[in-house]
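Explain this record to help learners:
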Amino acid sequence: MIPNQHNAGAGGHQPAVFRMAELDADLDRILPSPVLPPFWAKLVVGLVAIVCFARSYDGDFVFDDSEAIVNNKDLQAETPLSDLWHHDFWGSRLSSNTSHKSYRPLTVLTFRINYYLSGGFYPVGFHVVNILLHGGISVLMVDVFSVLFGGLQYTSKGRRVHLAPRASLLAALLFAVHPVHTECVAGVVGRADLLCALFFLLSFLGYCKAFRESTKEGTHSSTFWVLLSIFLGAVAMLCKEQGITVLGLNAVFDILVIGKFNVLEIVQKVLHKDKSLENLGMLRNGGLLFRMTLLTSGGAGMLYVRWRIMGTGPPAFTEVDNPASFADSVLVRAINYNYYYSLNAWLLLCPWWLCFDWSMGCIPLIKSVSDWRVIALAALWFCLIGLICQALCSEDGHKRRILTLGLGFLVIPFLPASNLFFRVGFVVAERVLYLPSVGYCVLLTFGFTALSKHTKKKKLIAAVVLGIVLINMLRCVVRSGQWRSEEQLFRSALSVCPLNAKVHYNIGKNLADKGNQTAAIRYYREAVRLNPKYVHAMNNLGNILKERNELQEAEELLSLAVQIQPDFAAAWMNLGIVQNSLKRFEAAEQSYRTAIKHRRKYPDCYYNLGRLYADLNRHVDALNAWRNATVLKPEHSLAWNNMIILLDNTGNLAQAEAVGREALGLIPNDHSLMFSLANVLGKSQKYKESEALFLKAIKANPNAASYHGNLAVLYHRWGHLDLAKKHYEISLQLDPTASGTKENYGLLRRKLEQMQKKDV
């Protein structure tokens, strides 16, 4: 028994069930196959989804993963859980002017759980969760597509009938294997999109249950499911901001599908001044108005809370992030925004050219309507207008419902990334297409069924469908491999966006991290050539030139960087280091002070300022600067070490010992601190304790020649001459050029020879 039917008009006089059977029959003509039960269909889709992206399971943390995970203190146990609700996705306080304002506490919470279960920053666990999430979402898509293609029908026991199983399975497979999802699945940061999609779909399916009528429960059951759907939408929003759009999709579903609102019929009645317009069933439907009130109130409440949490207002993006949004002309902005939409549509249609970043000159601005790329805009809107007309005005209710929901899923989740309501910090981003791809899969599947009716070449269509699935699977496997390491990921972007300065910058940074400075310099120079205002590339290039003692060019680059961006604290600090090396001490001090002015909590800058003061024999100022560094960063080993050494060299042994013990209390396993404190204790004639620290330091770093050499000096003073001889020899084996050790070893040998003569 199937008493409850909620199909958007049965298109003429045909029953809805017949239309669903017809849809699947059309697919059966091009892809003849037995109908899989829902369980087996979900199993197939889940396994295919996991296989497509399984190659990324042992990948590294790449690109944005470093900032959002590795450098994010919110993942560590020392950070209170309550801080997650006051910080953005990257671990910065939302109230800060520099905050990205991306509020995703539930996503960060899953990262924290991953970190706890993995026992540290081991990427395998993070990647496995992402792959399983995509598999689970793909399984859920079978139910979602069943609603989109088959409508809502429930048995007398309240179970939803799975209609159009072939169409649902094909669409779910197309979703599971779409290569544009690689960034979300293979990049750990993409978990925000995955979790958002999961709760988005659960919210939609929950809203569908509001129409499971029951004679006993009635309105109360419907209200519960609507409220649950709103709650799940809020959860989706706490995973990623895009989640709130599910409320808009639910409203469209309710009005156009459940309410059977026929735009064509309304327009005709308006044109003919039909009096029956006043008695529209939709306007008299109290249940619909009540549900719309709940959705509107829930959405408004979520937006209000979200705005209050943001604190200082929207984030501040730069022109390189989204150049079109900074264009003076409204026409230029509109043309470029629409061109971006067409590029997103192309990525769904042909996901072959994929790139981790599309900013920094990757897509040059369209500045005139004579630009040939305007054709893409025309093609996009020609297709969209045609689909919208069919979705709203078709007399075929079945076709109207599928196209409406397909366009709804395609457009509504994309709205936050459209630049229509606020400026976004990117040009094109593959990750934001995860949910819109659901609509694409609906339209593509429906297109195949429609095409099968109007052509006799069924085998050709079948070959195209299978080809798309298999080629996309292969592309997913290849692209997942590229996301396993930063080197592969960045180099893969060169062929897609050769004009993207950020691509060259990231390749240069990766090479520099591996010690290949010569190649890194080449890519950094290209990044600066492509974007002459790229201050981060200038800063990194200046650093490498500084290390290669090319100080003049380094100073020019860093000076230009701070001129372009006066609040760039890191560049000011590096400029100070270069000026210090050039013996321009006053300028160096001024640069350090400027860096600290723009970044008050800057321990590394205080450390370098201390080194400058030490070079100028301003010992008190040096100690104060290093003390500031350790207050801001208690684990700053270099600052602690310099304090101990300076106090030791100036004869303040008691103070040096106190500082050394304080430092080791905070960083107990730092062998360099053990070594420095051991030297102080040896000079204070605390030989036993000094020996213990030397031996502990040597155990941690057995190949440090100075550790063995200074331990030998301790034994020499202590009178343990044989042990002194042993460690002098080890030290000289490790570093034969150490003149001080050679001299001390020579003195020891002469002393041992004199002792032997006396014994004789």
Observations:
- The first helix runs from residue 16 to 30.
